[in-house]
From TrEMBL:
Species this chain originates from: Aphidius gifuensis
Protein name, as recorded: Peptidase S54 rhomboid domain-containing protein
UniProt KW Transmembrane keyword: yes
Lineage: Eukaryota, Metazoa, Ecdysozoa, Arthropoda, Hexapoda
Chief place of localization: membrane
Keywords (A to Z) from UniProt: Membrane, Transmembrane, Transmembrane helix
InterPro entries, per database record: EF-hand-dom_pair, LRR_dom_sf, Peptidase_S54_rhomboid_dom, Rhomboid-like_sf, Rhomboid_IM_Serine_Proteases
Subcellular location as annotated: Membrane
Topology term for the membrane: Multi-pass membrane protein
Pfam families named among the record's database cross-references: Rhomboid (PF01694)
Residue intervals of the Peptidase S54 rhomboid domain: 234-336
Length: 716
């Protein structure tokens, strides 16, 4: 049914007129600048007549719609609807602006069809100017019903914040508008604020109580709130561990995330919901750990923070298309979660622990153990966790050998192993070294009250290249079984490069086995007793470094065999021999090996005098600390014969300030990138040199006994 042009129909929203009438030339001036019709809101047409006319108008749109909906389904397919917009009937009956609106909505929507209700909503959706004025006047947006100029009011900061939170955390524009118009901050979002303040207060208390603060501590191990696996019956620990944190970095990250993410979520969803989500995350963390990782101590509110991030992440995943920068937010949340997991895991990032010393107080927690060393059960748990990542493992004297079974099962990648047990149980070593396939260095430190039988070594792999073995029973003649086991161990090491033996009384067969190791580059004998066939050491033709200390029965013939046959020897160290059969003539032999670049002769009070040093040529390092008969005369000859000398240790000798002057004079000829000469000398002599007001040149470095021990290691 078509209405006559100019006919108006009363509706609930006012009077809607035909668009043709509103846009006609006779009324164009009356409606200039407005797309809606004008009707006096005070129309006295009754409700029944208005409803009747509205139904008539709907019938008009139904007739137009049904022309392209012959089946009567109440909807037109998308392509058919686009054709209908270009048909002559719709062009004549529907205004151009309405057709443009319909075309735009169809193209922007992803629906396959357009329903009749959607069509009617567009055709009858306009409101009159008077109606708009009335609505704006009700909302105090215009000064009166007859004034269409909007009054612009700057919203307060609180409303701006509420609007921003609605835009960020809500997906539908209707929900955002409703939230911005109705949020009153009553009740206020107190949960996140209170939790944040309590966590900050706990951290402040324990920081003051323990007297220190750092990025990863202190961790209050003895607190009644920390979750401990050995105190699972104290049920409050499953939730209250969230109040404690492992360092200020852990605390700041948790507080930052829960304030930035949790506080807006609480403003939108309420304290009850967010509190339930937060506490569920905290309990999930402790309960899950108690089931799947039964040895872990827990601190921190990370479980609750993860729950908040997961809640927001779910919202972003489902509605990122409706959010501004949705993809960016999604990526940002993933980055935050990954970074937080990395930071939290750092305390438990066992893959970063490649060195472990069982007596390291800082590794465990010095405040918890105090002067006590961590018990073996704690050490075993650490090895279980980080064993597969360890390269170096040092176990002290308070550990029992039973721990070797744990080492064998979890330390498959360890390359350096040092053992210092008080008690060695042979059964604890059965099959252990067979599993340590990457082990290349082993150091056994025993005590005078204990012994370590080489039988424990029998499962060592053939790839071992360094052995340090202290027997711990100096003076005792080894048994036949001990000698056989030791010989078997040495014979099986096909690539042995370094062998250090302490407190061993050699017999002929054992020493003979050692002299057959052609791969040996370094040999150290400390507190050992040589056999009568010790001159067989000359067979170690590939030996480059030799260390001898407190060898009481050594003779000149032993030194002669070394110096005349070991042509590859580069370094020799002799300390406190206590060998009455060694004379100065034996040390004169050190001038024979042309390859010798480092000589260390220490604590030889009577055997060494100036004449011994006259023979040394082209040395790089010379140490004669504790040789009281050495004077400036010997050092002068050394500096003349060794122009490239880099280390000179004259601590405990009879040298004077003249030695420094000689060294300064000798190094003045060096230039460019030439190496420096480090002279270790008594502090009083250095002060005497400084009183001469003659500064040393840049190639001379003077160091006294405070730095001696640390610096000499650099050149070893």
């Amino acid at each position: 049914m078509l209405l006559a042009q100019g006919t108006s129909i009363a509706t609930i929203a006012g009077v809607v007129e035909e668009e043709e009438y509103a846009n006609s030339e006779t009324n164009s001036g009356r409606y200039a600048g407005y797309l809606t019709d004008h009707t006096d809101l005070g129309s006295d047409i009754d409700i029944d007549e208005s409803e009747y006319r509205r139904q008539l108008l709907n019938d008009k749109w139904r007739m137009l719609f049904d022309r392209f909906d012959p089946e009567g389904f109440g909807e037109i397919p998308r392509n058919d609807f686009l054709q209908a917009l270009t048909s002559a009937e719709w062009i004549n009956e529907i205004p151009a602006n309405k057709r443009d609106i319909l075309l735009t909505r169809v193209k922007e929507s992803h629906l396959n069809s357009v329903t009749f209700q959607d069509f009617v909503n567009v055709m009858s959706g306009k409101r009159t100017r008077s109606f708009k004025c009335a609505v704006h006047h009700r909302d105090r947006e215009v000064s009166s019903e007859n004034d269409f100029h909007l009054l612009i009011h700057e919203p307060p900061l609180f409303h701006k914040m509420v609007r921003m939170i609605g835009d960020e955390f809500l997906t539908e524009e209707r929900d955002r508008k409703y939230y911005a118009d109705h949020y009153t901050c009553c009740p206020p979002p107190l949960f996140i604020i209170l939790i944040t303040l309590v966590e900050l207060g706990f951290f402040t208390y324990y920081t003051v109580a323990m007297g220190e603060v750092n990025p990863s501590g202190p961790v209050p191990i003895d607190s009644v709130f920390i979750y401990r696996p050995d105190k699972r019956l104290e049920l409050w620990r499953f939730a209250f561990y969230m109040f404690l944190h492992a360092g200020w970095l852990h605390l700041l990250f948790n507080l930052g995330v829960q304030v930035v993410v949790g506080l807006p979520l609480e403003m939108v969803h309420g304290s009850l919901r967010i509190g339930a989500v937060y506490m569920a995350g905290v309990l999930a963390g402790s309960l899950g750990t108690s089931v799947f990782d039964t040895d872990v101590y827990l601190v921190g509110a990370s479980g609750g923070v993860y729950a908040l991030l997961a809640a927001h992440l779910a919202n972003v995943l489902l509605n990122y298309n409706n959010m501004e920068f949705g993809i960016v937010r999604l990526i940002g949340i993933f980055i935050i979660v990954c970074e937080k997991w990395k930071r939290i895991s750092k305390f438990q990032a066992w893959n970063e622990v490649d060195k472990f010393f069982a007596g390291d107080f800082y590794f465990f927690n010095q405040e918890h153990f105090g002067d006590r060393k961590p018990p073996q059960e704690i050490v075993e748990k650490v090895i279980i966790r980080c064993g597969q990542f360890l390269n170096r493992l040092i176990l002290g004297d308070y550990i029992e050998s039973s721990i070797m079974r744990v080492v064998a099962d979890h330390c498959c990648n360890v390359t350096y192993l040092q053992l210092g047990f008080h008690v060695h149980n042979t059964m604890d070593y059965v099959g252990v070294f067979e599993k340590l396939i990457k082990l290349h260095t082993i150091k056994i430190l025993t005590h005078y009250s204990t012994k370590f039988d080489p039988q424990n070594f029998l499962s060592l792999t053939a790839d071992i290249n360094t052995i340090y073995y202290s027997v711990g029973s100096y003076g005792d003649t080894p048994s036949r079984s001990w000698c056989n086991n030791f010989s078997s161990v040495i014979s099986n090491c096909h690539v042995l490069h370094s062998l250090n033996l302490r407190e061993i009384k050699f017999d002929k067969s054992t020493f003979k086995i050692i002299t057959k190791i052609q791969t040996l580059k370094h040999l150290g004998l400390i507190f050992c007793k040589l056999p009568s066939n010790s001159k067989k050491i000359k067979k170690l033709v590939n030996l480059e470094s030799l260390e001898l200390e407190r060898i009481a029965n050594m003779e000149n013939e032993f030194l002669q065999a070394i110096c005349e046959n070991l042509n590859n020897l580069k370094s020799i160290a002799i300390k406190n021999l206590m060998a009455p059969k060694i004379t100065r003539q034996g040390f004169y032999l050190f001038s024979a090996p042309q390859s010798l670049k480092s000589i260390r002769i220490c604590m030889m009070e009577r055997e060494i005098d100036n004449t011994v040093f006259f023979q040394f040529q082209n040395l790089i390092k010379l140490e004669c600390c504790g040789c009281q008969l050495v004077t400036d005369v010997a050092i002068k000859r050394v500096l003349e014969n060794c122009p490239a000398l880099e280390v000179l240790n004259v601590m405990g000798t009879a040298v004077t300030v003249a030695t420094i002057q000689l060294a300064d004079r000798a190094t003045r000829h060096r230039f460019g990138n030439a190496s420096k000469l480090h002279v270790f000398i008594h502090q009083n002599i250095i002060k005497d040199f400084e009183c001469l007001n003659t500064p040393a040149n840049k190639y001379l470095v003077l160091q006294h006994d405070v730095f001696w021990q640390n610096q000499t290691r650099v050149f070893n």
